[in-house]
Design goal:
The protein is mainly alpha-helical. It has nine helices and no strands. The longest helix is centred in the N-terminal third of the chain and has 17 residues, at about 1-20. The chain is elongated, with a radius of gyration of 20 Å. The termini are far apart. Mean pLDDT is about 80; it is low at about 140-145.
């Protein structure tokens, strides 16, 4: 029993000395990385500005700017998020055609929610002509491609 307690205390001391390695990056860290052109940081900064998480003041204009930068740097999640902004008219003028275009780009990269959103747009004929065959194919997602880690963000 004494060995278990000692091992536990040693673990706790080591963990507490290195716990900063497991801490989430601060908003300032994310902003710095975004400014350095890192698409994951640009995406996360855009989403924080969109939602107001981590105490960030909501700013749709800045959210759009960072999501656009992330999109231009290859972020599939940013493509989907920009599609949602245009579909809902959040911070931009509602535009189903532009939403369709962004969803198409993200869906082509295996983004499951974008594939589903395309199916919905084809079903409703929003942003594109109504097409029931494409509607159904947009709702069927291949798990191996859609859940690949590089397609999440």
């Amino acid at each position: 029993m004494k060995i278990k307690k000692s091992a536990f205390y040693i673990f706790m001391v080591i963990f507490s000395l290195h716990s900063s390695a497991f801490a989430e990056p601060s908003v300032a860290d994310i902003q710095y990385r975004a400014e350095q052109g890192q698409p994951i940081a640009q995406y996360h900064l855009g989403m924080m500005l969109l939602s107001g998480e981590q105490g960030v003041v909501k700013n749709f204009e800045q959210a759009f700017k960072w999501l656009t930068a992330a999109d231009q740097n290859g972020s599939v999640g940013a493509k989907y998020s920009l599609g949602m902004l245009y579909y809902t008219g959040t911070g931009v003028e509602k535009d189903a055609k532009r939403a369709f275009d962004y969803f198409s780009k993200a869906a082509a990269k295996g983004h499951a929610k974008a594939q589903h959103s395309l199916g919905v747009l084809y079903d409703r004929g929003e942003g594109t002509a109504q097409d029931m065959d494409k509607h159904l194919s947009g709702l069927v997602v291949l798990p191996s491609k859609a859940t690949h880690p590089q397609n999440i963000i």
